[in-house]
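Long-time lurker. I teach an intro course on protein structure, and each term I like to show students one example going from raw sequence to a predicted 3D structure in token notation. This year I'd like something fresh instead of my usual example. Would anyone be willing to generate the tokens for the chain below so I can use it in lecture? Attribution to the forum is fine with me.
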Amino acid sequence: MDLVDFLRARLAKDEQVARACSGAAWAAASGGTVRLDGGDGPGDEPGFVASAENASYAEHIARHDPSRVLQDAAARRQLVDDCEKHAWIIAQGRATPEQQAAQAVREQALRLLALPYAHHPDYQVEWRA
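-- Reply from a regular --
Happy to contribute to a lecture. Here you go:
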């Protein structure tokens, strides 16, 4: 598996999980809980999502709700697609020296995008930025 395939697979998994629990936005509530920011609970009360040790943890969880994960994955996928497009151009032998230099930066960006997944068994240490 190359780096691009690895990133595409991780992004697809992130999106799959986020879609499975998407709906209303999440909001930190009192007492370290995270609730759906809408009427998705019984009697149109905000539905329960998670309980955290403290308000800071709850705020962190709420800030990383499924809609944010989906937006993040879409942005990362656009970066991966752009890097692949330019790599294809260079492989065709029609690249200027400037384009080749820019591709080195793109390849570094791909390695950086993979770092959050370094714990995954398919991650290869040579990708480490």
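Some talking points for your students: The longest strand covers residues 26-29. Residues 66-91 form the longest helix (26 residues).
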